[in-house]
Amino acid sequence: MPRILLTGGAGYIGSHTYVALCEAGHEVTILDDFSNADPGVIDRLARLTGGPVDVVRGSVLDAPVLEKVFAGAAFDGVVHFAARKAVGESVAKPLDYFETNIGGLVGLMQAMKDADVMRIVFSSTATVYGEPEVFPLTEDMPLSHTSPYAFTKLTCEHILSQAAKADPWAVGVLRYFNPVGAHPSGLIGEDPRGIPDNLMPYIAKVALGELPELQVFGNDYDTPDGTCWRDYIHVMDLARAHVLSLEALMGGRGHVLNIGTGQPVSVLEMHAAYQDACGKPLPYRIAPRRPGDVPKLYADPSKAKVELGFETEFGLGDMCGSSWAWVQAQAAGWRFNS
Ligand code: WQD
Question: Whole-prediction pTM value?
Fold first, then answer.
């Protein structure tokens, strides 16, 4: 079976993709510097997959590490997750984002080319659509960036496209909308450091009683309930999309795809769904708009259905229920999870 390298494979989406690839019969190696991942996830991945996890602790910015990784195994492809991904932080530290996200991709691709590993799945984002006004979003819509983070992802997409004109790269670009939820076992999930920026992990902390209330950033947007619309996708669906993307690349079929449900959900709808999932009232208050927020982001997911046969299977209740199970298991130290 194919051997796949997952850069950033100890992270939120990377760890779920690791499990999905193992279940699909792949041999998988994780390369991660654990700058934004708990090393304890590796033991839990071993529990989930029933076997040792092949991990290399290191950075994609470290050329000797990359050389050693590619000398050590004949990979059939790479899924590149390793990147910085906090929009707000990117505004404060743009050079760090350019170095890690753009420099990291170029260095990785150099090492891949030297080892004749020419298949890459790239983790992109819906924020490359900037502040769109036409919905749902299709892949041919205008691209722009509203943050250094989005600039790095858009630049990486251009780098991949240009490189494929010069050499026989097989490239899969997956534009994630809003990944949420967790593996049903409760053993892996989203594990942000400090107070979460993102909506679902923040609500989860309120549900645990670790934060007093949710601040809803604005209720005067042009949506039915006045709060922003997003296209939340279960991380298990997203992980499965990566397996299908790799299979397409094995067949020589590159792609650039939106990976979303196509169903917009407002902040207040997410709040209500999480209340239902956790079975308790979750305090919130309406707060001022958050700078940089766009009113709406949701996908037309039809191209992924045509090109990969992919469509989402999990709904909002599954997203919230799996998140609630995860944060409770995490708080209990996974003592009761098989
Ligand atoms: C969703 C909605 C907030 C927190 C970001 C990145 C994106 C991707 C996912 C990397 C917005 C509202 C949030 C809160 C709130 N990251 N909200 N109170 O901003 O759509 O996307 O994370 O790939 O690139 O841009 O996600 O979860 O932060 O916000 O009201 O405490 O929830 O205003 O409308 P976002 P989010």
Answer: 0.97
